[in-house]
Amino acid sequence: MSEKNINNSLSISTILCSDCHQLPSEKPHILPLYSTSAYELGTLENSVGLFDGSKEGYVYSRYGNPTITALEEKLALIECGDSDGVAIMTSSGMSAISTILFSLLSKEDVLVTHNGLYGGSTEILEILAIRIGFSLIYADLNDLESLESIKTQKAITAIYFESPSNPLLHCINIIQLAEFSSKHGIRTICDNTICTPLLQLPLQKGIDFVIYSTTKYLAGHGNSIAGCIISKHKDEMNANVRKNMRLLGGNCSPWEAWLTYTGLKTLELRMMRQCDNAVQIASYLNNHPAVKAVYHNSIPDHPHHELAGRQMKHYAPLMSFELKGGLEAVSQFMRRIRIITHAPTLGDLDTLVLHPDTSSHRNIPVEVKSKMGITPGLIRLSTGIEALDDLLADLDESLNV
Predict the structure, then answer these.
(1) 195 and 113: one domain?
(2) Taking each helix axis from N to C terminus, what angle separates 388-399 and 326-336, rounded to the nearest 10 degrees?
C-alpha cells in the first residue's frame, strides 16, 4: 500500500484530517482490527480491476475487510477441513438464516423443516414464506417415509434444521438426511450453533450449508453479535449468497469479527469444560424431586440419546428442565439464583438460564408451543466454565424452596 506524502508545508487542518501513518513491514503477532469503511483505490486502472473482480483487494468494508476475511478463512478451514469451503460472515445468526433462505428460495418453492426450532428461527421462516411465496412444511426429518410422502406431492427445494434443537435438544440423523436429500437434489441447511465444529461437522457428512450464530460458543464471551454461513458450494457462495449479503446490508462489522476471531482461540478449552459441566448438571437435575423432566442428550430417557452419542463427539453444553411447580416455581428459581445468570443468550463463559415460554418463544402460538414441549415450567440452561461444585450448590439452593 502506498502512503500519502504529508509534509509540513500543509496547513494544520489538512494534516489533522489526513492519514499519514506508515504501515509496519513486519507481520503483527495478533490479527489487527481494520476499522475502516473504505480503502484507497490508487490509480483508475487499479480501481477498475478491483470493481470488476479481475484484481483481488478491498474497496468498501460492506464488500470485504481484512479482519473479516481472516475469520472467514479460519472458519471455512475448521468446518471443511480443506481449501474447498467458503465462509461468509453476517451481522447476526438471524442475518445468516435470512440471507441463506433469501438466496436459495423463490416463489412456489418448498422448504421443509421441523417443530422445536429456536423461536426466532420459526418466526423468520414463517415471515419469509409469506414474503417470498414459498411453501413451509413441518415434518419429522428422521422419518424418511414421511419425507418421501411429501416429495411425491410437492418437489422439495430445501430442508432446514437444527441438531440439537434449541431448547429441547432434539437431534436429526444428519447422515441419513444428507443421503436422502442428495439423492433427490434437495438442498440442506443445518444450524450447528449448539454443537460447533468441535462436536459435529455437518458439511463433512453431506449437508450443503451450515449456519452459526457466532454470538454463542464460537465467540464465547458474551461481547459480540455476528453470524456465519459456510458451504463447499464455492461458486454459489461467492456469487449468489455473498452478493445477497452485501446488497441486503447484512455484513459483519470488523470489530465483531475481531472479537470472534479472538474468541475462537479458546473454543476447545471452553467447550470441553462446558460439556463436562453439562453432563453432571443434567444428572443432578434428573434426580432432583422438584424437576419433572430434563431435556439433555446425556440422559438415557431422552428420545435422541443414542443418536446424539453416535453422531456427536460430546453431549452439548445446553439443556432444558421442567419444574413440577410450573410458572410460580420458575419465578422463585429466578429470584434465588446467585451464580447462575438469567439472560437471553447462550454459549457464554458463565452459566445462563432463560424462560423460553415468555422470551425466545413468546410469539409462538400457545397450541404450537404446547405441541413442541415449551411449557410454562420449562427453563433453558447453558452451562459455563465455573467450578461444578459452585454451580450445583447454586442450583440446590434455588430449587430447594
Answers:
(1) yes
(2) 130
Is 347 a domain residue? Answer: yes
Say if residue 217 is in the same domain as residue 292.
no
Residue 191 appears among annotated catalytic residues = yes
- Catalytic annotation on 357? no
Q: What is the pTM of this model?
A: 0.94
Task: Please indicate whether residue 52 is annotated as part of the active site.
Answer: no
> What is the distance between the alpha carbons of residues 282 and 303, in angstroms, rounded to a whole number?
15
Domain containing residue 185: 63-264
Higher pLDDT, 4 or 262: 262
pLDDT band at 4 (very low <50, low <70, confident <90, very high): low
SS3 165: coil
242 a catalytic residue: no
Specify the pairing of strand 187-191 against strand 291-295: unpaired
Residues 58-97: tens digit of each pLDDT: 999 999 999 999 999 999 999 998 778 999 999 999 999 9
Distances from the Cα of 190 to the Cα of 96, 164, 168, angstroms? 11, 10, 16
**Annotated catalytic residue, options 187, 216, 232, 270:** 216
| Residue whose C-alpha cell is 463447499 | 232
Handedness of CA 379, 380, 383, 386 (dihedral sign): negative
Active-site position among 34, 39, 58, 118 = 118
**Candidates 39, 160, 191, 357; catalytic one:** 191
